[in-house]
Design goal:
heterodimer; A: about 280 residues; mainly alpha; 13 helices; B: mainly alpha; MetI-like fold; 2 domains
């Protein structure tokens, strides 16, 4: 591996850079993980005790007893999965249509979707809240699934369209000659052949849905209807100064673990999804 | 690319018509969902901004023309929220732009463990903002927080800082939390731009005797400006509408010093039940963001032409 050989100074600078980048990215999350298993006396020690001795599961247990935390996690998972499925189900046919359009019409569509995705959520919150209340959907998962799917749509269409464009025209034409209609082509040819793009679109929609806070906070009032982001906001005490930090850290770790796992498993897919659209556009 | 369709004759005949109808049908689900969740609500909120909310007996919305919008002109809290939003957006972009470019340059190097570092660097981007905002509030805790502990051990501060209790430091803490989360996005876009720079460009400069530093300054940095502009443009619009990180970390405090437009609109609507004014604040905030984005795009494209 001659490509790795450097002058000593450059190698040292690189090593420092790598250490700083890893520390900056991971230390804040690591500090939470340490707090989550630290006995209370060490949480409030000055100067800070970094390594818990011995580690304790008391905070996780207390959290589980005080809050329906398993329910929050299940709600988040269910709502995010449904939103992801719905977003892909709507985005895939649209992407298939866009691929067959003339470039100018296609670009106009893609630009329009991009503009829609830039709308600040606060602007849509009030009318959506009115609608959710009028339809009696407060505390219903549907009140979150539909908006999350819609918010995920623009990026999903961008990613899928780019993926479908890689499918050779001849393959599609052969499928048409074999008697497949647009839906058949989509399900049997385009989606399977563009599997990496489908994965990327699904991952990004899922993560965005899992992380959404504003709507979750506003559309759920009952504890058992909350997602993790809204639920954690209710773990804290009356003010920032009577917060049960051990329990809160445990909650933070439990709610972020699923997305951390997704990142570690699918880093390349996520990166390609994030950069593909932005760089081409 | 755009010349092509003009040369081709427009497809005609029953077959082409059927293909067009098929395409239109395929777009229906997207249009339906976006119309329901984005289109109609956007229209509704803009209209709501032209009403006055009366709480006398029950809540009533009365048409008020531009009167509700005009209130922002004399509203000190609106102007302060506007200033805070601009400051937050500017500082956040500055920090994540700098860190993002540095990270991208680092990840562009070849070294053992680069794949692991790329995954590690992406982690902050994927974590829920509202949840990590709580984590940052804990990090910036005045007595037991990690920030004060580290800074004291490094002898950078003599006494603990009450980060979230003073206006200046509270804004700094919120900006740091936001930049931590969003730097990976900037870094990845810039990295993709870096990977698009052909090796020959660097080779040619090396042959001409340019040092590594000169190559960075004269070649790499100028060539990654387009991708940096794209990344920061996305980020500017998002930062301008920031809600989660501020709401959770400071609630807009202390003394409204970190209250952004989104937060003020939210408070007007949900706390003061002043629906019309909340809608007006949100609408004006978005119009300002659009104007800002248009200005940046204008400047960027003019520079490219020159």
């Amino acid at each position: 591996m001659t490509g790795f050989r450097r002058r000593p100074l450059a190698a040292a600078a690189l090593a420092v850079g790598v250490a700083l980048a890893a520390t900056w990215s991971l230390l804040p999350a690591a500090w939470q993980a340490l707090t989550a298993v630290k006995p209370d006396a060490q949480i409030t020690a000055v100067p800070a005790v970094w390594i818990p001795h011995p580690p304790t599961a008391a905070h996780v247990r207390a959290l589980w007893e005080r809050k329906p935390f398993g329910r929050y996690l299940a709600n988040s998972a269910g709502i995010s999965l449904c939103a992801t499925f719905l977003a892909l189900a709507a985005a895939a046919p649209a992407a298939a249509a866009l691929v067959r359009m003339r470039p100018r019409a296609r670009n106009r569509w893609l630009l329009g979707l991009l503009l829609v995705s830039l709308f600040p959520p606060i602007l849509l919150l009030f009318p959506l809240y009115e609608g959710v209340r009028a339809l009696g959907l407060v505390n219903s998962p549907l009140a979150l699934v539909l908006p999350y799917a819609a918010f995920g749509l623009p990026l999903a269409v961008w990613i899928l369209e780019a993926g479908f464009r890689e499918v050779p025209r001849e393959v599609e034409e052969a499928a048409t000659l074999d008697g497949l209609g647009p839906l058949g082509r989509l399900l049997r040819v385009q989606l399977p052949l563009a599997a990496p793009a489908v994965t990327a679109a699904a991952l990004l929609t899922f993560i965005a849905s899992w992380n959404e806070f504003l709507l979750a906070l506003s559309f759920t009032t009952r504890d058992r209807a909350k997602t993790v982001t809204a639920g954690i906001a209710s773990v804290s005490g009356a003010s920032l100064y009577e917060v049960p930090w051990g329990q809160l850290s445990a909650a933070i770790v439990l709610s972020t673990l699923p997305v951390i796992l997704l990142v570690l498993l699918f880093e390349r897919r996520i990166t390609s999804g994030l950069t593909g659209g932005a760089v081409k556009g | 690319m755009s010349a092509l369709p003009r040369v081709l004759p427009a497809p005609r005949g029953p077959h082409a018509r059927r293909a067009r109808r098929e395409r239109a049908l395929l777009l229906v689900p997207v249009l339906l969902l976006l119309g329901l969740v984005v289109g109609l609500p956007a229209l509704r909120v803009v209209l709501l901004g032209f009403t006055r909310t009366e709480l006398a007996d029950g809540v009533r919305s009365v048409w008020a023309g531009l009167a509700t919008h005009a209130r922002t002109l004399h509203d000190g809290r609106f102007l302060s929220a506007l200033r805070n939003t601009a400051l937050f957006t500017g500082l956040s972009l500055l920090l994540e732009g700098t860190l993002g470019v540095a990270l991208a340059l680092l990840l562009h190097e070849r070294f053992p463990g680069r794949g692991a570092l790329r995954a590690a660097v992406l982690v902050p981007w994927a974590l829920p903002t509202s949840v990590m905002a709580l984590a940052w509030a804990w990090i910036f805790h005045d007595t037991f927080g990690m920030a004060n502990d580290l800074l004291e051990r490094l002898h950078l501060i003599g006494a603990p800082v009450a980060w979230l209790a003073q206006p200046g430091t509270a804004m700094a803490a919120v900006v740091i939390a936001d930049a931590w989360k969003t730097t990976p996005f900037v870094a990845l876009i810039v990295l993709a731009g870096l990977q698009g720079i052909p090796d020959e460009v660097h080779e040619a400069a090396r042959v001409d005797g340019a040092s590594a530093f000169q190559r960075l300054l004269r070649i790499t940095l100028p060539l990654l400006v387009p991708s940096l502009v794209v990344a920061l443009l996305f980020r500017a619009v998002q930062a301008w509408g920031a809600f989660d990180v501020v709401y959770v970390m400071t609630g807009g405090g202390p003394g409204g010093s970190t209250e952004t437009l989104s937060l003020y609109a939210y408070q007007s609507y949900f706390r003061y039940l002043d629906f019309g004014y909340g809608a007006a604040v949100a609408t004006q905030g978005m119009l300002l963001a659009l104007a800002l984005a248009a200005l940046v795009v204008r400047l960027a494209s003019r520079r490219e032409e020159a």
